[in-house]
Amino acid sequence: IFRTAQAADETAKETPPLLYELRTYTSPEGKRDELNARFRNHTLALFEKHGMKNIMYWLPVDQPNTLIYVIAHKDKAAADAS
Question: At 4, is the pLDDT very low, low, confident or very high (cuts 50, 70, 90)?
C-alpha cells in the first residue's frame, strides 16, 4: 500500500521526527551467537521498556564479531535519559 505525497506530508506533520542512533557492538571472538541470543531474548525488550525503538540490526559478513544496529529516541532528552 502506497500513500500519496500529501498523505505522507500530513502524517509527518502529526508525528514529530525521531532521533536515530547508530551503534556498533563488537563481541569477543566466537561469541556472536551468544550476543545475538542476548539481544533477541533480553536487550530488545529492555530498549523498548526504556522508550527506545528498535529500527534495524545488521551482522556484517566481513566482521564476524560485530553487530551494527539503529535505535530511535523520541528526542535528544529521551536519548540522554536512556
Answer: low
